[in-house]
């Protein structure tokens, strides 16, 4: 049933119902192993928001998920399923790292930042535009090509670091540490509200992620290009008859999507580790899919969905520490349940709610 639902239902009630269902099922799992679900929820909440360092880690993870969620959402609007956020974040992190390695001796962080943003976005955009072009010109399915590009990007990063970027004599697969002048500032200005947040990896990338949300909103809903993207996403055939270049839409949309995923690399590379290392995405590319689904591909709700998953990641670590019977694998199960129900949003409660609205309209008539 594809009945149009009010915005408060589509963006509020449906995600809330799915989230509540996920936590109820997760609570039953916790109960089945002999632990108190309410106590588990308390540990998650405290680990995520109970002290400054925990808040910082929550915002750090949230930043990653905002960027990758936006990347998936932009592609969704053009009816493309960009599942290659992991690979694009790898390449974006490489671009950010190269900018820092090349300029950390001559410029401060604020002088390096524009170059890091440009190179991170460019590397990610190129890596996503190739699958977009292959789809537009050769019909190669975006899901297949972007998945394969994830594996290629990992192997490419491994090769580049080991053969060109690694410090001689160092067994770790990583570049040299950037000069401190190239380090992204921490969120120390929040230490008055959250004492201890300055000891966490949370950094200025969080603010840049919020700026990216504003950019995506303006791009998709306030520009001619965004209108063309939405028309193509709704009906590619109608878009062709309207004179819209479908090749241009697909390639550019995928490039923008990849650029956003690439910018995720700023957070761990320039804001935390301050070096190029191998596991830059840390599964954020795949979590971004659930974030975009739960956020209904809208930047505002993506922020809240990303915050939820940031809370689960940081709070889950606290939960595994405080309740040893709930292992880290069990925490992953809880996170997976949220992803499962977020992905099933269209097929669980929507038909029932749409039917209820139809009955109400008939009774009013």
Automatic annotation (TrEMBL):
Pfam name, any one: BPD_transp_2
Principal subcellular localisation of the protein: membrane
Keyword Membrane: yes
GO terms under cellular component: plasma membrane
Keyword Transmembrane in record: yes
InterPro entries hit by this protein: ABC_transp_permease
Gene Ontology MF, one: transmembrane transporter activity
Regions that span the bilayer: 12-34, 54-77, 89-107, 113-135, 142-161, 202-220, 241-264, 330-353
Cellular compartments annotated: Cell membrane
Keywords from the named record: Cell membrane, Membrane, Transmembrane, Transmembrane helix
Bilayer topology: Multi-pass membrane protein
Name under which the protein is recorded: Ribose import permease protein RbsC
Organism of derivation: Pontivivens insulae
């Amino acid at each position: 049933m594809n009945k149009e639902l009010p915005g408060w239902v589509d963006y509020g009630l449906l995600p809330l119902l799915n989230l509540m269902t996920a936590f109820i099922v997760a609570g039953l799992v916790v109960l089945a192993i002999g632990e108190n679900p309410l106590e588990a929820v308390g540990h998650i909440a405290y680990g995520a928001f109970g002290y400054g360092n925990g808040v910082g880690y929550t915002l750090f993870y949230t930043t990653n998920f905002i960027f990758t969620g936006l990347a998936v959402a932009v592609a969704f609007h053009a009816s493309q399923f960009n599942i290659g956020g992991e690979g694009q974040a790898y390449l974006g992190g490489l671009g950010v790292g190269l900018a820092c390695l090349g300029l950390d001796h001559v410029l401060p962080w604020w002088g390096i930042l524009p170059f890091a943003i440009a190179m991170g976005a460019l590397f990610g955009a190129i890596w996503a535009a190739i699958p977009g072009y292959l789809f537009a010109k050769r019909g190669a399915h975006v899901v297949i090509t972007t998945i394969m590009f994830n594996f290629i990007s990992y192997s490419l990063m491994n090769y580049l670091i080991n053969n060109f970027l690694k410090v001689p004599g160092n067994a770790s697969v990583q570049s040299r540490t950037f000069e401190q002048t190239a380090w992204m500032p921490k969120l120390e200005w929040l230490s008055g509200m959250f004492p201890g947040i300055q000891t966490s990896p949370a950094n200025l990338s969080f603010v840049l992620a919020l700026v990216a949300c504003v950019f995506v909103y303006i791009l998709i809903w306030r520009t001619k290009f965004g209108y063309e993207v939405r028309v193509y996403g709704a009906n590619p055939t109608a878009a062709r008859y309207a004179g819209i270049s479908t090749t241009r839409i697909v390639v550019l949309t995928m490039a923008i999507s990849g650029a956003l995923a690439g910018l995720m690399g700023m957070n761990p590379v320039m804001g935390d580790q301050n070096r190029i290392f191998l596991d830059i995405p840390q599964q954020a590319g795949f979590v971004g899919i659930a974030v975009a689904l739960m956020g209904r591909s809208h930047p505002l709700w993506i922020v809240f969905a990303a915050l939820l998953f940031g809370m689960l990641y940081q709070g889950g670590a606290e939960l595994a520490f405080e309740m040893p019977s709930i292992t880290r694998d069990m925490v992953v199960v809880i996170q997976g349940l949220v992803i499962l129900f977020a992905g099933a949003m269209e097929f669980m409660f929507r038909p029932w709610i749409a039917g209820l609205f139809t009955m109400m309209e008939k009774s009013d008539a």
